[in-house]
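Structure tokens please, single chain.
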Amino acid sequence: MTKLAGKVALVTGAGRGIGRAIALKLAGEGARLVINDLDEEPAQEVAREIHAFGGEAIVCAGSVTAADFAERFTRAAVNHYRGIDIIVNNAGYTWDAVIQKMTDEQWYAILDCHLTAPFRILRAAQPIIRELHKAEAAQGRQVFRKVVNISSVAGLGGNAGQTNYAVAKAGIIGMTKTLSKEWGRMLVNVNTVAYGFIRTRLTDATADAAATVNIEGREIKVGINSALLQTIEAGVPLGRGGTPAEAAGAVYLFCIPESDYISGQTIVCGGGFTMG
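Here you go.
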């Protein structure tokens, strides 16, 4: 018996890396997915993977920072599956600079993606969840729902060169704590997973100092020098960076019935590494 059978899960940034692993993990446990990614094809590929093992998934591609995205995303779940049970605010990237060299564009781009977008998604989801809860309560049923916001150890302890990212990731923890208080009466558990060093395409070793990915028309530097990567991993008590599958496991813990009395909490998924 899968623990998330029939649940409707919305995951942002689910076309690659950690988001993809989260989507596959939840679908593997029976959840029906609404998959978002900035790019259509990676999102469709994840949906095809889910369909291949008998799962259910639809795609809602596009930028989470678009003004109409939150309504479109939540409505996709309601229109296709008639409900929302799990929301994972995962989409994100980094655009680093020390503060004296950080532009307003860098500042707002990262805050918009990591903080404003989750705010809009959860704001759009609230009336839907409220009505679902009212109907369930009238029937004498208890149904717990789950919100998992993604933060970082940078949001807990700061990180040089990442003022924008650290502020956004600290802010999402504040949002989690607040919504756990606002939404508890609707039986919604709201928690945060703060990642340490997880190996993805954005953090893998590279010999190319000019390696970039294009995100909404911006060329964003990615990859870490091999020597620096070794130093970072040496500082992790478990001796290595985490895998996307391990990162997804932490989110899964907050989605299952065993977490029904846990809310407003932040757990660090970092192999023992923290910055605080």
